[in-house]
Amino acid sequence: MEEADDRLIEAGTPVFRRTTLALAAAGFSTFAVLYGVQPLLPVYADDFHVSPAESSLALSLPCATLAVSLLVVSPLSEVWGRKPVMVASLFASAILTIIACLVPSWHGFLVLRALTGITASGLPAVAMAYLSEEMHGRAIGLSMGLLIGGNALGGMVGRLIAGVIADFGSWRIGLGTIGVLALLAAITFWRALPESRRFTAHRMRWREVPGTFTQHFRDAGLPWLYAEAFLLMGGFVCVYNYIGFRLLDPPFSLSQATIGAIFVVYLLGTASSAVTGEIASRLGRRKVLWLAISLGLLGILMTLSGNLYVIVGGIAVVTIGFFGAHSVASSWVGRRALRDRAQASSVYLCLYYLGSSVLGTAGGWFFVHGGWTGVVAFLGGLYGIALAIAIRLSRLAPLPR
């Protein structure tokens, strides 16, 4: 029984604080490396003479390679162990980011970004599996929220650093700074994360791997949670991918540094993920998920305003709603998957990053042909479907204890 296992990590203990610090640092590193380029998309469009949709490949391409790589890396963690895979992932991603800032050509830069997506895949699903195995049920909602909070903090700091430095200096210096910070976060993670206490390595029979993934699609809830990951992340990334193009143009005509500063609202995502995770642990995930998605939909509609303050408020509301929903859905996956949790988490994150890649790039078509109104119509459809799924999940029968 879970309650009788003294190896499980309880909230408030020293080992809980060490674990959450380490995984927050890991989330910070991974998201800074992946999403630090987002405010630079208009800069890439100008410097490399590519379209807005093509410039989005700097983000969409690593998200796509990460999504596919997750399906390979998570089974490897069952053999090699959770911590070794995550440590290798963080160090490799940081080093590739530092190298990428030195490459002169657009295609060479994209190749390194694609490789960064592959190396970054060793962290997300494995971290979720680690928490599902090591944390007590009473602590998993908070710990998952803090992990996602680290993701949000990394996304915010990466975007802010890149945007501000690009305005006053060079985007290459900004990206190199992100790489150095990611390297420091990797060192922190390596030294702080406790070794697994409830993980047992086992020999992987690769012919059996497809079955470890497909079994999760027979569950009554997991496929719907995977759909939520695809829709919510795809819509969220679209907001941040193209809002910069809108705010650079009249009537706003903001500077790159100002647009980068707007990403400070990511701090709200840090708080939202932890708070929503804790609320979901108390009230139940089925009662909280649809409310978080509704909040995100409200924020999307707010960005239609012609008032800059309302637009920034809308971005903040979208961020709070998205990270709250992601915190609930991702921890729900860990609780519903009774076996092969790394694979269950990797499928969720595969769809999560595919949504970022596919829908994030598709939003560029709506922006080119319909402006920001076209993007909002696209996002409204995505979040409307996500809300309908969340309502369906609220009626899902719980698993037997």
Automatic annotation (TrEMBL):
Keywords of this entry: Cell membrane, Membrane, Transmembrane, Transmembrane helix, Transport
Domain Major facilitator superfamily (MFS) profile: 15-398
Pfam families documented for this protein: MFS_1
Entry keyword Acyltransferase: no
Topology in membrane: Multi-pass membrane protein
Transmembrane segments: 20-37, 57-73, 85-106, 112-132, 144-165, 171-193, 224-243, 255-276, 288-305, 311-334, 346-368, 374-393
SUPFAM superfamilies with a match to the protein in the record: MFS general substrate transporter (SSF103473)
Entry similarity comment: Belongs to the major facilitator superfamily.
Name under which the protein is recorded: MFS transporter
Organism field: Methylobacterium oxalidis
